[in-house]
Amino acid sequence: MRKLVVAVVVLAGFAGLIGVGALTALLAGSGGRGTGWSDCSADLGPWGDGAGRGERDAATLSGESVGIAKRIIEIGKQRGLPPRAWQIAIQAGKTESNLANVLHGDRDSLGIFQMRPSMGWGTEQQITDVDYAINKFFDVLLAVPGWEEMRPGEAAQRVERSAFPLRYHKWEPMAAHLVSVEGDVEGISACQSLPGASVLATQAIQYAQAQLGKPYVWGAAGPNAFDCSGLTQQAWKAAGVEIPKYSQTQYFQGGVHVPLSQAQPGDLVFWGYGRDPNSIHHVALYLGDNEVLHAPQPGESVEVEKLWDGGELLPTAVRPAADTPMAGAPAPAAGGAR
Questions:
Q1: In what order do the strands lie in the sheet with 255-259?
Q2: Element containing residue 304 per DSSP (H, E)
Q3: 206-234 pLDDT, tens digit each
Q4: Residue 123's domain spans which residues?
């Protein structure tokens, strides 16, 4: 909840921000091995296009990890699954176990994908059998509605059901490179059908704009009422990006931290007592031009207004869906397959 008395501030760094209308470019890789797959951008933040990163990351894998990636591809081919499915499995395996058939993990999590016997993934013997684990991962993936259209990291999360959904994006170029090289797939770009950060931000903002005038209700996340974090969560969910529900966890686990002076449309801005991240009590969606869209407080409705300070505006914004870990964020748990 924000203060009733607010002071409008003008941040000099916002002067050069571009408007939402200009954010329409798609991240599209150029076809062909070595240019599209390995150079795919894995982050949705502002740090480059991922050029060459896939090949560099793949070069750090152990022999066991490369062997497991090859086996994922072989089984995927045997089952007639498209290369995107292989990529999703490789990203999940790299995130969960570093593509190793480990015999330990968070609670009873085991194997390549940190599957848990207690959650019905199979017996300990089964989920530590490489072929069984790969086939089980594919079985669950195929049951996810619309997985083919999702970003690979999001599809991996839908299978793994991790408490840290954004971490799977990090290995997108590496997995794409392995599919290209080890799977002998040519003439396709890992990113050709994936929207870039600006497109996703535009989608999030469009959803939020459609909620203007709806009442603030504490704890609500739509469709007829919202609180501040419910609105930002649902806005980004409409763009296909999962972020946590509460404002404080959105700050620590919702994306990558950027200086407020570099905020772009779609970024999340926060208020906390004494500007302390641990006392965050309000979040809003930045629109550019020193404006925010938010669900203010009880008795008010979703609205657009000028960015205010009041001595509580945090100097750091959050850009959802980036794969770069945030300072101060808790370390991901070992297990993912819930």
A1: 255-259, 316-320, 268-272, 280-288, 291-294, 303-306
A2: strand 303-306
A3: 999 999 999 999 999 999 999 999 999 99
A4: 53-182
